[in-house]
Batch of 2 targets.
Target 1
Amino acid sequence: MLECEINSPLSILETEERDGKIVGYALGRVVADEAELLKICVLSDYRKQGIAEKLLGKLLKKMRENGAVACFLEVRSKNSPAISLYQKMGFEQIALRRRYYPDDDAIVMKRSDLA
Ligand SMILES: CC(C)(COP(=O)(O)OP(=O)(O)OC[C@H]1O[C@@H](n2cnc3c(N)ncnc32)[C@H](O)[C@@H]1OP(=O)(O)O)[C@@H](O)C(=O)NCCC(=O)NCCS
């Protein structure tokens, strides 16, 4: 599924390399004027060094260049590191999907000032 998403012509992939290997990536897609953050992940040994912030900043810039005026994402309500990252990057909660996951709610967030 990941390979399929990465290879989609609508997808944008940003990666970060350290020590000769990819240690983080962010994957998004733009459809018409709306973008969606699909995945962001940093290897555990490389966390808390600003890598996710850098990846997301670059991804949002490319989304804007590809015509997006807003970006949406969905995150587990218990994933406080990710929620803090998204808030720091200007995302706001717009909805709560109760029991979206078998063991958690989903928070829907939006950043609407991309244009
Ligand atoms: C969420 C994740 C991508 C953050 O990556 P990171 O490179 O460690 O994040 P950064 O160092 O760029 O941190 C940027 C901001 O995110 C927030 N943050 C990151 N890790 C945090 C933590 N453990 N606790 C609280 N806030 C955290 C903070 O606001 C931080 O800003 P600050 O350093 O000024 O406090 C990483 O923890 C991860 O890969 N988690 C597993 C995958 C995941 O849950 N992805 C999101 C859902 S798909």
Note: Residues 39-42, 47-53, 75, 79-82, 84-85, 88 surround coenzyme A (CB under 6 Å).
Target 2
Amino acid sequence: MKTALACPVCAAELTLGATAAVCPNRHSFDRARSGYLNLLLSNKKQSAEPGDGLAMMRSRREFLQGGFYDPMAAAASAAVAEIVPGRPYGNVADLGCGEGFFTARLNTALQALSPAIGCYGVDISRPGIKMATTYNRDITWIVASLHHSPFQPQSLDAVLSVFAPIDAADVGRVIRDDGALVTVTPGPDHLDALRIIIYTSVKPHPQTPALMANDTRFEQTASTRVRYPIVLDSRAQILNLLAMTPYYWHISRATKAAIEELSRLELTVDAYVSVFRPRAN
Ligand SMILES: C[S@@+](CC[C@H](N)C(=O)[O-])C[C@H]1O[C@@H](n2cnc3c(N)ncnc32)[C@H](O)[C@@H]1O
Ligand SMILES: [Zn+2]
């Protein structure tokens, strides 16, 4: 099957088969038994297991199964679906997809538009991508860096980025001129009750994703705020939420112990779903 994928060695087009992806220059990349593709070259790895680890991915998976981010996923999927109208085919990638929750929801929304839309989930974390394959094997799951994303120039109709690093230059390279980048970034009240426990003063999040703020390649064409209350009524879910946020790695043992005592937490989910279009040159 012809794809939007580029060979990480020579950049030629990759053809995807059942057991491997190959390029015309005979570079070949095996698919794991679970179906994902590893396009991260070992000399490009900064560490043995880059990206978020298995424990964090498990926490995220368990938390997301609770439905707390369903409205956010629906808003992100709707924003991407609006960008790929009119044509029965196309390619869409979720960059920094983690354990694949938002990618799987997006794929369901896109398949309703057209079964010929190719959906890719990319993350540098192998445990994350391996876990993602359990959602849906029709999605092409890839271990790769979003700083050298494994796509042909101008090959994607849309890129989704949910709470993940953004490489605007690379996104600009891979999306079509009429395509768009959809970002989901935290709003000012996101996970307020958790942040109040963790920080004495809560720093508001900026509305424009920090990594896009100084970018001149894209212009923001839409931003929707998705804000709603949630209640976590078990210690397990509170700890899952804590372990899937960056806060977990910065808090003191005393704060962690205080959070472990909680059996109920009311918080706000608050996110901006923003659309960025490449500027015409
Ligand atoms: C906060 S998580 C968000 C995951 C997912 N989008 C979600 O919302 O459930 C950020 C993700 O970015 C990934 N990541 C970090 N640096 C990356 C890179 N250079 N290339 C690809 N993924 C990266 C991490 O492994 C992690 O899965
Ligand atoms: Zn090649």
Note: The domain at 33-190+201-228+269-278 is CATH 3.40.50.150 (Rossmann fold).
